[in-house]
Task: inverse folding
């Protein structure tokens, strides 16, 4: 099963929308704490609509706890950053991939990137007028790309 991993998400509406994408594609949603909101926040559930009870949600206290409990292989991890040299179109994603996304304001923490630099991928942007894409939109695009060969 492919999993979406949000590292320290800050905006409840984005997390709710990502949860809805996870339900649509039968993916697990992994949240890495600390969160910028309470998971019980109405805005999370409002964005996830009535799909929230169907989300396979797993939470970890921090990144190290996620690594210790899941022990992902290098070929399972794909860290999405806007400055990545490799396009997210290039990998041949395994069915058990972890698609990792960082905070809306700061991205994936530097220490995580330093430890997994080879796993960086990004969505190409053709215009220089956009600095970054909305987290929920990026996750949706990446999720569909990752599972397109497995559907």
Result:
């Amino acid at each position: 099963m492919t999993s979406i991993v949000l590292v320290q998400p800050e905006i409840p509406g984005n997390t709710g929308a990502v949860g809805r994408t996870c339900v649509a594609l039968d993916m697990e949603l992994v949240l890495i704490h600390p969160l910028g909101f309470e998971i019980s926040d109405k805005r999370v559930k409002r964005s996830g609509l009535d799909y929230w009870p169907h989300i396979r949600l797993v939470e970890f206290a921090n990144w190290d706890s996620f690594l210790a409990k899941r022990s992902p292989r290098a070929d399972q991890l794909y860290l999405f950053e806007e400055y990545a040299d490799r396009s997210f179109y290039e990998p041949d994603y395994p069915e058990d991939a972890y698609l990792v996304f960082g905070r809306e304001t700061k991205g994936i923490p530097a220490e995580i990137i330093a430890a997994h630099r080879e796993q960086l991928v990004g969505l190409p942007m053709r215009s220089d007028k956009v600095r970054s894409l909305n987290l929920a939109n990026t996750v949706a695009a990446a999720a569909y790309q990752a599972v397109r060969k497995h559907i």
About this structure: The chain has one domain: 3-147. Strands lie at 3-7, 28-32, 56-60, 77-80, 98-101, 120-121.
